[in-house]
Structure formats: structure tokens, C-alpha cells
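Hi team,

Filling in the usual template for the complex we talked about on Friday. All components are listed, including any nucleic acid strands or ligand strings, so the model treats them as one assembly.

SUBMITTER: L.P.
PURPOSE: interface mapping
COMPONENTS: two
RESIDUES: 936
SEQUENCES:
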Amino acid sequence: MPSSLVDGNSLLAVDVGAANTRAVLFDVVEGEYRFVASGTAPSTAEAPLKDVSEGARQAIRNLQALLGRPLLDKQNNLITPNQPNGSGVDALVVTLSAGATIRTVIVGLLKDVSIESARRLTESTYARIVETIGLNDQRRPDQQIDNIIRMRPDLLVITGGTDGGASRSIKKLLEPVGLASFLLPEEKRPAVLFAGNEKIGDEVRDMFGPLTASLHLSPNVRPSLETEDLEPAQRELAHIVVGIRKRQIKGVDLLDQWSDGHILPTAYATGRMVRFLAKVYGSKKGILVVDIGASAALISAGFKDKSTLNVYPQFGLGENLPGLLNYTSLEDILRWSPLDISTGVLRDYLYQKSLYPSAIAATKEDLAIAQSVTRQALYLAMQSARRDFPRNIATIKPNLTPLFEPILAGGGALSDALRPGQGLLILLDSLQPVGVTTVILDQNNLLPLLGAAASQNNILPVQVLESGAFLSVGTVVSPVVTAKYGTPILLGKLTYENGVEARVELKYGSLETLPLQSGEVGKLAIQCLRGANVGFGPGRGGTIPVSGGALGVVFDGRGRPLDLPSDPVRRRELIKKWNWTIGGE
Amino acid sequence: MQAPVNHIVGLTSIVRERILPFSGTVLVQLNQKVSPNEVIAESNWAREHILLDVARLLRVTPAVAERLIKIKVDDRVPANTEVAVGKGLFPRSVRTPREGRVVVVGGGQVLIEVGDPKIELHAGLPGTVVEIIPNRGAVIQTAGALVQGIWGNGRIESGLLVNIAESPNGVLVANRLDVSLRGSILLAGMVKDAETLKAASELPVRGLILSSLYPSLIPMAREMRFPIMLTEGFGALPMNSAAYKLLSTNAKREITVNAEIYDRYSGARPEAIIQLPTFTDPPIPHEVDDFSPGLQIRMRRPPAMGMIGSIVAIPRGLTMLPSGLRAPAAEVKLENGETVIVPLVNLEVVG
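RESULT (copied from the run log):
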């Protein structure tokens, strides 16, 4: 008998990514929901097929070949519900990140208030802000109109005004925006999300209602100057994004129909899981989820009172790669490389890879470049996302990454058949966690699918999360300290369940590991030297329970922020040494 | 696994749907012969406007301004047309600063579209209109040799193809461009410096078919008034042997280069077409194929990026690559005789 509250309904989850489409089956095994298997196929949003349902069908076919039971009928339609002969599934959920970046114009009153909220709202999905209209905009209205027209936005996000507050200024701002919408060809008019002063909702309806088939009003993101509430608008935005994709990409409507409307942007589904995890497992520390793939880099953090969700298409590793150079230099990317690679080779890589986003590194040099780019892109995404973290969160130093437990990481760049050590090293370099944290790799990229499944079945995510479907890489100890290279900064003693002890002396600039298998637990006694701080205070140690993982307990003594040697030869030697220690090569 | 196809074909039917980005007027008829630069559909979409705030300029209320405005929506107004005149002994007046068309009048304001609003859709290839897509465009068919590229600067032109690349890895330099090449479309290897593009523009040539271009030259290449098509991409990459062989053997023939901007979603990509006379329509090439032994492929990424080869075998499951990653892969015999293991996602079929 299943112990869940539902009667063992099987659930198929399909994730349509920019490069790959995955079909994942969750079903009841020995009374609890489990991740059963997944099938993958190349995504087909792009030409020549231009129909995402083709890739979804192929992924499902690959899955049914593994399962040995049919999920599609002879007409290639999904069999629902589950049949007595074992074919089919009871329900389907879909997450979607394929598609071109959504070009967005944001409108708000003040730069640091409503425009900032509009920015944060827009960054919660696969959008790029192409124009900002605000109260301090010095341009003439006709210049604003022409700019909006030239940008051909897919979406207008309008904020501004506190509830019941002044409305004249925002109405004045809306005039050029409305005129620009009117002047765009009818089939190119953008969807509109209004999340401002609720008092003018009717006027917004009157102005934009006749102009767009997709007008959405959500509660104000800034009900008062001091309060920001993005969640309701994010939910509405998620529906708008699916609507935009239905218009842009064939096959999305079929998946919507198959799933009975349970289709969400992947980022939103991930954000939903982070909120859930923060509520269920939240401690004083935050929960961090990162994902980096061809379409975007995603950083979502859950804290006790607030969660953040930031999607950065500009830091995606696919078609937007040349744009990365607007945010960083070739030299800053190459600082992560263990091989001597010229800036010219890297520049060519960024442009050439953008032509073939789904291509993977087949040679050692290509992999060194790809992983350097991943590190820098994720580093930039983390730096950007930190701006939106709440102020009253647990930190060791305010200018460093806050304390997180755990860190969950997924996405093609981290999970594509890399050794766990390589994935961990990318995360340590780019996120630079501090203190003690568990690092978990979402190798099957299940997290957003669980977020989407939560709307169908709220037991499933909990049971799958606790089932070991995620790969625990291990516990990472990262002291905050400044010292000379080679100086001892921490002593660790790991006591296993059987009483055996293992010790480590961590020197500044090095990485060390102590083995602790997945599923095992131990007690880690930490003695901090030279004022090192792992969260107990400068120079203070303590004993904590730790759980095992693929790499056991990892000690990162390279300092925070990570300061790489400026001498390129020495730097590359060090990176090779670190790779050798935990990267497995 | 399905394989993307890069068309490099000596003789094929080429069928292209050419549509406006939004509704407009189709200017061609069924079975009409068209040339590559012929406008087959057009639409109006103004991108420049002038907003005259009559109420503010006349210092009257919007309601009063409404009554004073003398022009109405859709009026075509020359520059300096009187839009409204105020009241009083020395009345102020508002005039149009430029010629245009009135698009909105309301709230005491007048919005005028100025500049050329016309959007033109060119045929892009020489051929026959085989289908009309009402209000949007047409389907055009032709027969001939086809070479697809990976990057284009958005221009279209036809002309005589002249091969000045002695080999697939030739480099085009400015002093190679002399007056005898004026008006030609050049098959010309890779370009590494701005002087060469400048010299090509000053000559001028009618088009460049290049293997590759340095990334720093992309903005300049976009500004060129003639088409530039890259067969391989960015950096210093030799032209793949299949494209080079097909193009070089067609030198001195009339060629059309539609250096359309690559759009992975619509499938639009740059291509060079040499129209050839045929008695019957040759077959249309597949847009996707299934990876299988014997297929001719092109390498999209290192090792041997751009090189042509053929699939020897496709091992089952995942294969360990030289990088250490594991992926579905193929054993590929390259044209230089070397055999390499390549992930399937890094291959495209040539045909």
C-alpha cells in the first residue's frame, strides 16, 4: 500500500530545454514516490522541425524503451490515464525554457523603487530588458515611442505607484507606451503585465485592452514604498511567458493540452521549489539553487522570510555567449583555465559556440575553455543575484557569499556527464561558498520538474527529494581567512560512526578531502587557526555532524574572496593541482 | 538520433518560403519568374515619429487644442504645414517640422509618422513563384547548386562568381583585390583585417563568400552594402572541402548570395545558389536525417572543426570522449584519413 495521500498516481514530467528535452517518470515504488527513469532527446523548438512536441515525443519514446512499457499510442499521443495493462501515465507536467529571450520593456516611476521591482520581476524569467521608461527619463515622448517600436518588445512590464498613492505620473508615463503599442503591427504587439497602483487598473484595461490579446493585471509589486511583493506578479508572468511561447513555438499548445494546463517556465518551477525548500527545511542559513545551461544561468535563494529568483539569459552558455563580453573580459575568463589558451582562441570559441549551442566539448582544450566560461558566467550571475538578497541574512562577512545550507546545482553545464569533483570545483570557484555547507548535484535536473509536479501532487516532491535521486557531493568547509600561502589555517578531525578518526591539516591556498561515503554520517571537529572563521566566529572552532557524499568532506582553504595568483604560470599550476585533488584528473 | 543537415548539393530543387514579418501586400503572382532582388511583398511600418503637443505649445487646455487642430488622421502633411493656430492678437501657431502622415490626434496632441515606412521583402533567389501566401509572401522554387553558410550580413546580390582562393585555407588580403574583380562575387577564403573589407567595399565587389571572419570584424561586415556569407564561422577556419569544391568548380557562373541572418528558430540561413537549367525538378534535399554509418558529415567543433568525414560506426550508449565527457558518439573517418570519436551533437550531415 502506498503511504502517500494519493493512490499511487504515476506522473510524467517533460522538460523542454534549449538544447535537450527530457521525459522523466515518477511513480510509486515500495509505497513511496521515486524517480524511476528518464529519456532524453534533442530539443526541436528550432528549425528544421520547429515543433517542441516532436522532441518531447522522442524523449518519451526513449523513456518507454527503457521502461519497456508504452507511454504513447499508435498516433503518438500520450496515453492517459495509466491503463490496466501498464501502459500510459496518470498525469503530465511540463517545464519549458526553450525559446528566444523575451524582449521586455519595463515601465516604472522611480529608479530605486518601482523600476527596481520591475527589473527584479523581469529577471525572474527568460527575459531581457531592452528599454526602461521612468519618471527621470529625459527623452521626448516621441523618442521613447520610437525606441519602443525599434525594440519590438514581446512584453511590457508596468509598475509604479503605491496602492492608493499618486496615479497621475504613471498615467503620463503610459501615454507613449500605449502609443508605441498601437503603432506596432497588430500581430507584433506585446503582452502587457500591469503590477502597479491598483487604483488605475481600470484605466490600464481601457488603454491596453483594445491593443493586446494578452493583458494581465496582478497585485502591486510595491503596495507601499517599504514593501515589495513579487510573488503574485511572478505567477502571472509565468502564465504570460507560456502564452508568448505558445504564439512563438509550435507544439507548446499540444503539451499544454496533454498536461491539462500544467505547464510552467522552468525557472518559475525552480523558484517554486526553492520557496518550498526554504519553508520545509529552512534554517538560519539560506538555501541556494543554481542552474546553468545553454539558455540561461539561474540563481534562486530561499531565506526565512523571502526568496529570490534571478534568470540571466546573458550568462547562458548558448547563443548569447558573445554577449558575455559586455560583462567581463577575455582575461577574466581565462584566469580559470588550467591550460595556456590565448585570448584570440577564447574569442573565437565564444562566437563559434554561439552558432552551435548544443555542441559539447570533445577535446581537452575545448573542455578547459568551456569550464572556464561556465565558471565566469556563474560567478557573474552570482554577483548579480547577490544584489537582490535580503539584508538581514546570515553572513560571515557582508561582502562575501552568505551562508547557505545546502547548495543545489543543476543544468547541462554542471550535470552533463562530468565527474562530481569537476562540478564541485566549478561551484566552489564561481559561487565561493563560506562556512560549512552541503553541496548536492541535481544530475538528472529534477528540481524544476518537482516544482511543476507540486501543483499536481504535493507529496511527490517531498518523497523524491528524500529518496536519494540527487547526488550528494559532500560537505564543504570553506574558512574565511587571510594568510600566507602554505600557512596552516584549520585542523579537522572526522570521527566516523565506527569510532575511527581521520585528520586533516588545511593550509592556506590548498584543497583537502576526507572520505565519507554517501549515506554515512560522522562528527567533524574543527579547530580554526589564524582567525579563520567557518561560521562560529573568528578563530573559533566547534564540532558538527556531517553527512557523506561522492567526495566526502572537502576543505577549501583558498580564502574568500578567492584570489588567484596573477602570475599565469603559477596560477595554471595551482589550478591543475586543485583539479587533481578533487577534480579527479 | 536525428541529424541536422547542412546543404552542399550540386543539383537540387530549392524551395523557399519568403514571408513578411507581419501583414502586407503580396506583389507577385503564381508562376511568375522572379529575380533575387525583386520585391515580392511589401508592408508599411513607420519607425520614426514626431509628437506635437499642441496644447502645451499653444498654452491652452487639451480640449481647446482639440478644437484648434486642423489636420486629421491619415492626412499626408508636407513640412511646415500649419497644424493649429491659437487665439489672440498675435496668435501662436504649430507647424509640422517634417513631411509625414498623421497617425493619431487626441488629447491636444498630434502624432505624425515621418521617414520611409516601407518594408520590402526580396525574393532572395532566382526562381518561380509556386505558391502565394496571402498578405505575407510567397513560396519560390528553383533548381541548381546550393551551398549553405552559417553567418550572413543580411544582404542579397547576384553576380559572376570568381574564385580567388587558391585553396580552402586561403586568406584574402586587400592587395589581392584589383579592378578586374569589380562587380564580381568572390570566393575568397578567410578575412582577418578591416583593410580587406574596406578594399572590397571601395572596389566594389558584389559579394564575398568566405570561410571565416575574425569576430572583431563582425560590426564592419554588417555595415557592408554587399552580401557576405561565411561557410564555417568565426576565427581562422578553412572552408570545408565540399563547399570549396562545389563553389570553385562553378566559378565563372552566375551566382546569387542571399546572406540572410541566421535564425535558428525560423530556419533562415545564408546560402549561395547557382541556378541551373533542368528538364525535370531534381529531388528536394532532406532537412533532417538519421545518423547512420556511411553518412557524409561535417565537424562542427574541434577536433578538426569544419572538416568533412564519414561515419564509420555509432557505438551503442554513451562513449567516453577525449575530453573525459561521456555522450552518444560516432566513430568518424576524416578526409585526411584520421579516425576520431565525435559526439553526435557536434556533427551535421552534408547533403
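MY TAKE: Chain A is about 30% helix and 25% strand. The mean pLDDT of chain A is 93.

Thanks, L.
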